[in-house]
Amino acid sequence: MDSPQWVVLDMDSTEIPVYGEHEQSAYSGHFESTCYHPLLMFNGEGDCVAAKLRPGNVHSAESWGELLLPEIERQQELGKEVVFRADTAFAKPEIYKELEERGAKYVIRLPANAGLARDIEELLTRPVGRPSDKPIVWYTDLLYQAKGPARAKDNRMPKTPKKKSAFNHNQLHKCPTGIKGFDEITEGGLPKNRTTLFCGSTGTGKTLLGIDFLTLLSKLAENSARQSRKHSIIHPLSSCAEGRLAIRKCCC
């Protein structure tokens, strides 16, 4: 709730589906519909204080500054302290920087990742005994620094305990794909001795990813063939440019 001394500003996006050809409407892969993707900002009383109509294919945080920064200045001119709240889409270093420069406090949810999971591992263990009818929420304070922010952030993280898997994800052996950036995101590449399914609509890069991976395998096979001429080599051919993938098996 807002008070004479401070105001809470909440920002989020929403979906407005449309049917037919409407100006600036676009297909959203996230919502799986043709829609508008407006950005909305509310105060602690639930009143909408700002809004921006956007095409359906923009990021949730697109144009955040156009709505948030003028409202912060307006509230501060009224002598109020500003607290900003948002979801993971707004967990961006540039947003942190602007808020801190203006002296505004903020609570922004961080995306889940392996680093944070390790820091709160003891909270993820399910308590012994019969499960409670209500969620059990535990809190912890920690310092966490991502690649973007210049300094560590103070994180107060509520977590609902869940059943801990006996499988240690840190021991999952990976096979590098040789694709720049992809191996970093997946922390080493694709899992070894497992089937990995890539899903997506037309044009999302599934075929290109497979071609790049096959190219790496081809190079590895050629290096192995130099040591033993008995190995077979898999070569991806140039017909990939025609929209199809042809593979030729050669024996050295």
Question: What would you say this structure looks like, in words?
Answer:
- It is extended, with a radius of gyration of 25 Å.
- It has 252 residues and is an alpha+beta fold.
- The longest helix is centred in the C-terminal third of the chain and has 22 residues, at 206-227.
- Strand 5 and strand 6 form a beta hairpin.
- It folds into 2 domains: 6-109, Transposase Inhibitor Protein From Tn5, Chain A, domain 1 (Alpha-Beta Complex); 172-251, no CATH class.
- It has 5 helices and 14 strands.
In short:
With 252 residues, this protein is of the alpha+beta class. It contains five helices and 14 strands.
Strand content: 25-35%
| N-end to C-end Cα span | 75 Å
What order do the strands of the largest sheet run in, or round the barrel if closed? Answer: 6-5-1-7-8
Number of extended strands:
14
CATH superfamily heading of the largest domain: Transposase Inhibitor Protein From Tn5, Chain A, domain 1
Classified by CATH, the class of the largest domain is Alpha Beta
Order of helices and strands: EEEEEEHEHEHEEEHEHEE
Q: State Rg.
A: 25 Å
Number of helices: 5
Can you tell me the residue ranges where pLDDT is under 50 for at least 5 consecutive residues? Answer: 160-170, 230-245, 247-252
Report the average pLDDT across residues.
77
CATH architecture of the largest domain: Alpha-Beta Complex
Give the helix level as a range of percent. Answer: 10-25%
**Secondary structure category:** alpha+beta
> How many separate domains make up the residues?
2
Shape: extended
What is the makeup of the main sheet?
5 strands, mixed
What CATH calls the topology of the largest domain is Transposase Inhibitor Protein From Tn5, Chain A, domain 1
